[in-house]
Amino acid sequence: MVVKPLKRQSRIFVEVRKAIEDFIVEKGLQPGDQLPTEPEFCELFGVSRTAVREAMKLLEVFGVVSIEPGRGTFLR
C-alpha cells in the first residue's frame, strides 16, 4: 500500500497575525495603544472571529500585545 503525504492546510490565523502586525506598523501604533476589537478586525480582514482570536493569542505569546478581558487588547 502506498500512502501519499497529506497536504498541510493553510492556517489562516498565521496570515491574520501578519496582517495585524502590518496594521500596527501602518497606523504607527505605540506601546499602550489600544487595538481594534475582534469584530472590527473580522470585518477589516474578512475572516472569522476564531481566526482573529487565535492570531491575538499568538501575538500575546510573542509579547506583542496584552489582552485584558473586559478592557481590550493593547500594544506592548
Itemize the secondary structure elements and their pairings.
Blueprint: H1 12-27, H2 38-45, H3 49-61, E1 65-68, E2 72-75
Helix pairs in contact: 1-3, 2-3
Work out the strand percent: 5-15%
- Large-scale geometry: elongated
Which structural class best describes the helix and strand composition?
mainly alpha
Q: Taking strands numbered 1, 2, ... along the chain, how are they ordered across the largest sheet?
A: 1-2
Biggest sheet details: 2 strands, antiparallel
Q: In percent, how helical is the residue content? A: 40-55%
Average pLDDT number: 92
Low-confidence stretches: none
Oligomeric description of these chains: single chain
What does it look like?
It is built from 3 helices and 2 strands. By secondary structure, the protein is mainly alpha-helical. The protein has a two-stranded antiparallel ribbon. β1 and β2 (72-75) form a beta hairpin. The longest helix has 16 residues, at 12-27.
